[in-house]
Write a structure and sequence with these properties.
Layout (H helix, E strand, L loop, with lengths): L8 E4 L13 H13 L4 E4 L11 H15 L4 E4 L7 H12 L5 E5 L10 H14 L5 E4 L11 H10 L2 E6 L4 H11 L5 E4 L5 H7 L3 E4 L6 H10 L4 H14 L9 H9 L18 H21 L3
Parallel strand pairs: 1-8, 2-3, 3-4, 4-5, 5-6, 6-7, 7-8
Length: 308
């Protein structure tokens, strides 16, 4: 059994900046990592769906994970996924390569371990094979919605908690009551649940969730950090902040992740808004205008909520 070293708090799902030529923009990656750290986050989830991992070659996934670890330089923790193959043997090779980058945990994508119509037993068997093939490494699980969302059942989640090897869960069920039950299933095992859903975040923290890991930490990480740090001491203000964050979460539907890249560029983290997902379609003028207004509003909200 490995020691759980995963820090509670806010974990952004890292973007992958690209150059005009379509390659990973290393300078923008450095600026992005520093922005995350300066925002007060506890860790970075690299090589995930926000990173466009299904559109990255294995060499790019490895390089992005390794560079994120290097740039973070111990200031925050880093976890990474990146196994996208259908073949279990190929997935193990992908995961071994990610583990060798020095990340704090290698994150398994739940829908990669079993097809939609395959049983929990199949999932557990394949996960067990991965743990056996890659000893001495901490793991996590990400309920990625693409190509289909496979939520962990009570049986699977309890197995993960009891394995002693899985200490990070990016929960995407978006159901506050289910999250509360899941936290009871996990108990004191050491497996930490990070909610990806903004509207249910505050209640999940009150129920014992370890933090937030999701899209909105690319837009308002400092506000999310403030919510996590102060929700117990300032419950009334936490309710107001939760309400704002919930309304703000509309941005997830606005040509994400291009919109997040455009936003970051507008707040002093230079990068192109180009993406490989969605056919590489450029960000519409309408969405750019909305993001420009969001930037102004978010600045005012930070002034209000972050003042001492």
């Amino acid at each position: 059994m490995l020691k759980n070293t995963i820090s509670s708090g806010v974990w952004p799902t890292m973007l992958t900046p690209f150059t005009d030529g379509g390659k990973i923009d290393k300078k923008a990656v450095e600026r992005l990592v520093n922005w995350y750290v300066d925002s007060g986050v506890s860790g970075i989830f690299a090589v995930c769906q926000s990173s466009e991992m299904f559109q990255l070659a294995l060499e790019e996934r490895i390089a992005l994970a390794r560079e994120t670890v290097r740039l973070s330089a111990g200031r925050v923790q880093v976890v990474a996924s990146g196994h996208i193959s259908d073949d279990p043997a190929e997935q193990i090779e992908e995961l071994k390569a990610i583990a060798e980058t020095g990340v704090d945990a290698v994150v398994l994508v739940s829908n990669r371990l079993a097809l939609r119509d395959e049983s929990d037993e199949v999932w557990i068997e394949r996960c067990g094979a991965i743990l056996k093939a890659i000893p001495g490494v901490n793991f996590g699980v990400y309920e990625c919605p693409y190509p289909y969302k496979r939520l962990l059942s009570e049986k699977v989640l309890k197995w993960c908690a009891q394995s002693g090897r899985i200490n990070f869960l990016k929960d995407t069920c978006c159901d506050g009551e289910l999250i509360a039950r899941r936290l009871k299933w996990i108990g004191e095992s050491g497996l930490k649940l990070f909610n990806a859903n903004t509207p249910t975040l505050l209640q999940s923290l009150r129920d014992g969730a370890s933090g937030f890991c999701g899209v909105m930490a690319n837009i308002c990480p400092r506000l999310l950090v403030r919510l996590f740090d102060s929700y117990k001491a300032h419950p009334d203000k936490a309710e107001l902040l939760q309400s704002y964050l919930t309304v703000l979460s509309w941005v997830e539907t606005q040509q994400y992740p291009s919109c997040a890249k455009y936003y970051l560029n507008s707040v002093g983290v230079p990068m192109e808004s180009a993406c490989r997902v969605n056919g590489g379609a450029p960000l519409s003028r309408y969405v750019r205008d909305e993001i420009d207004m969001l930037r102004l509003l978010n600045g005012k909200m930070e002034d209000f909520f972050l003042k001492e």
